[in-house]
């Protein structure tokens, strides 16, 4: 008769359970093919080493995520079909890995295969045959050394990393973020208007257009990677002036795209344009609102065709014009054409510009943009000498245009008092001081006082009933 003591039976059962339980916990590791056998061998790096993770014997929680799977740093990992972390062999055992090391380059905690790449700001790095990285050496638009040098130097303004510029080269910044062509000398000499300050006339210490004309001054635009500042600054100044001169009966944001696509005679859309040409177009053809004809952005592909003109106007007597096309934006119906009178050039004196600004509204100014201006985050800008010691290709500049909206002065912590202009840029509201910047006034800083334009919105009696 077969008899078995109950105690022993229980013990056997329990032991069975125990081994089963352990199996189940470890089951995945044993069933799954090893990482190396699954061909996952092209990314190594610091895993066990990174967290100082080396466990004696078998410890199922001695594990790390590894390329969508799990790798282990316990001694047991080498007895299974190999699910050891890539650095287990040399870090935990101090022996060379049993698999031949894959040729490649490390960056961060990763190994990249030969010809693998990563981006270091604006430069592409490629893994070479010898296991070495080779990176392009372009000057970048956001340059940490320049940021630090400016912030150390007490220049009256702060520099920082504008994230939309991260990854762009300085050359791309100059090519895609500006876009005003310097006027020819015949234009520069043209119709300069001199305003005269009356006897005893004093201008205020500070002025801001948005305080004098609340709700009539429009926020900064964003030209993206379209070198069309000629169209953006013109639309911005015209929008404010049409609003001011119609006493708020019309307060449109005028369409830069209308200019970019339709003002094509001697103009190059997102590859640059002239201010005199833009004002000629606003006077003779007029443009619709930005709602009606929204900005279409720009690919950085300079070879691509410019988007065709989708708005036209015809004369309707007394110099006024009306649209002959529907709004390109399908849900906007108001396709009124806005026009201006001939633009006039102001004398390059600080006081004349101030008087015009205070009496008639924001003015347009040409400006020479240098490499450090892209980094501006606040304060009173002036071009700094921080790039002077660097090779020529780090010192670049290009012509831009902006909307001057006011002035003021500020005493710096070091006791200097700086006079400044406030101006709206067209690099979006996240750049600078909410899309605006302040720049030294009275010193023709960056040529900003050398070519300043004003204009009158063309407003008839009928427009006053517009709203
Ligand atoms: C795994 O590691 C142990 C402990 O160092 C060693 O004795 C054993 O030989 C290793 N096994 C394999 C397959 O490498
Ligand atoms: C700059 O900003 C970008 C985008 O926000 C970020 O990825 C990058 O790490 C920043 N660089 C520096 C040096 O702060």
TrEMBL record:
GO terms for biological process: proteolysis. Residues 1-21 form the signal peptide. One of its GO terms (molecular function) is cysteine-type peptidase activity. It holds the Pfam family Peptidase_C1. Gene3D superfamilies: Cysteine proteinases. One of its GO terms (cellular component) is extracellular region. CDD domains: Peptidase_C1A_CathepsinB. The keyword Secreted applies. InterPro entries: Papain-like_cys_pep_sf, Pept_his_AS, Peptidase_C1A, Peptidase_C1A_C, Somatomedin_B_dom. It is found in: Secreted. Residues 51-98 form the SMB domain. It comes from the Eukaryota. Its main location: secreted. Keywords: Disulfide bond, Glycoprotein, Secreted, Signal. Belongs to the peptidase C1 family. This is Tubulointerstitial nephritis antigen-like isoform X1. It comes from Acinonyx jubatus (Cheetah).
């Amino acid at each position: 008769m077969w008899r078995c003591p109950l105690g022993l039976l229980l013990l056997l059962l329990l032991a069975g359970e125990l081994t089963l339980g352990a199996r189940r916990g470890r089951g995945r590791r044993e069933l799954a093919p090893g990482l190396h056998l699954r061909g996952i061998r092209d990314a190594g790096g610091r895993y066990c080493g990174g967290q100082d993770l080396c466990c004696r014997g078998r410890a199922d929680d001695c594990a790390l995520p590894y390329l969508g799977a799990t790798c282990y740093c316990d001694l047991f990992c080498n007895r299974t079909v190999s699910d050891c972390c890539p650095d287990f062999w040399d870090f935990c055992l101090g022996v060379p890995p049993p698999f031949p090391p894959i040729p490649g380059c490390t960056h961060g905690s990763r190994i990249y295969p030969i010809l693998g790449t990563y981006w270091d700001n604006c430069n592409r790095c490629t893994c070479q045959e010898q296991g070495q990285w080779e990176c392009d050496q372009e000057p970048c638009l956001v340059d940490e050394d320049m940021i630090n040098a400016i912030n150390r130097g007490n220049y009256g303004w702060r520099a920082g990393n504008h994230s939309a510029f991260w990854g762009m080269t300085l050359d791309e910044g100059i090519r895609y973020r500006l876009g005003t062509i310097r006027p020819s000398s015949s234009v520069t000499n043209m119709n300069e208007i001199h305003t005269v300050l009356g006897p005893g006339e004093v201008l205020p210490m500070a002025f801001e257009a948005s305080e004098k004309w609340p709700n009539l001054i429009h926020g900064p635009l964003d030209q993206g990677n379209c070198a069309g500042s000629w169209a953006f600054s013109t639309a911005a100044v015209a929008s404010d002036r049409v609003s001011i001169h119609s006493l708020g009966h019309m307060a449109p944001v005028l369409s830069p795209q209308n200019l970019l696509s339709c003002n094509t005679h001697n103009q190059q859309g997102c590859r640059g344009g002239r201010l005199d040409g833009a004002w000629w177009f606003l006077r003779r053809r007029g443009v619709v609102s930005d709602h009606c004809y929204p900005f279409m952005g720009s690919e950085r592909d300079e070879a691509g065709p410019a988007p065709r003109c989708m708005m036209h106007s015809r004369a309707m007597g007394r110099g006024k014009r009306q649209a002959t096309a529907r709004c390109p934006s399908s849900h906007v119906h108001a396709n009124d054409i806005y026009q201006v009178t001939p633009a006039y050039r102001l004398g390059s004196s600080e006081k004349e510009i101030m008087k015009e600004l205070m009496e008639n509204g924001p003015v347009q100014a040409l400006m020479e943009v240098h490499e450090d201006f892209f980094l501006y985050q606040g304060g009173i800008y002036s071009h700094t000498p921080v790039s002077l010691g660097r090779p020529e290709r780090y010192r670049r500049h290009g012509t831009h245009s902006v909307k001057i909206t006011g002035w003021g002065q500020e005493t710096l912590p070091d006791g200097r008092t700086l006079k400044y202009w406030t101006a709206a840029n067209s690099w979006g509201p996240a750049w600078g001081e909410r899309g605006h910047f302040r720049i030294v006034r009275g010193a023709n800083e960056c040529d900003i006082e050398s070519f300043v334009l004003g204009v009158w919105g063309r407003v008839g009696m009928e427009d006053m009933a517009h709203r």
